């Protein structure tokens, strides 16, 4: 019992430290830009040492996209909770709707992040790698649910294209409902494939 409590306390401390690093960095990135913000400045803002920073994150790009682990977990959980007999495209739509809802939870922070990505080539490249990771996560779940490999490769790409089209519309007008825009993208796709 005492061991579990100590582990729980350690886990909470670790989570709080990671959150402090992310929060400190977000303000600095917005104020100074991504490339002009140093790891030493981030460590100072989070009241940790440079060495502690590297216990949590390999580099600034990993820190910038730290939220993506949570978004990947949203995709995984949504697919795990879906009915076993759900058609594959409906399943992918369900996953991208959940991704949309989680992505739009903090619009101001998300839009600030998008401004930084738009002006930073290193972040644009990392975003592409993140999208591939999301595709792979969805594909693996589809294969586990019985999809054949060609279908499992194609469906996540189509679903994430629908998400991206919706997301780009939402960035231009964040007052819109992002999951609803995802639905519109899927409806447009259905109209094209008729």
What does this structure look like?
- The structure is a single chain.
- The chain has 2 domains: 59 residues, Homeodomain-like (Arc Repressor Mutant, subunit A, Orthogonal Bundle); 129 residues, Orthogonal Bundle (Tetracycline Repressor, domain 2).
- It has 10 helices and no strands.
- The longest helix is centred in the first third of the chain and has 31 residues.
Q: Work out the strand percent.
A: under 5%
Q: Mean pLDDT, rounded to whole units?
A: 90
Taking Cα atoms only, what radius of gyration do you get, to the nearest Å?
A: 19 Å
CATH fold call of the largest domain? Tetracycline Repressor, domain 2
SSE blueprint and pairings:
Layout: H1 2-32, H2 39-46, H3 50-56, H4 60-64, H5 67-81, H6 88-103, H7 107-118, H8 121-144, H9 149-172, H10 178-193
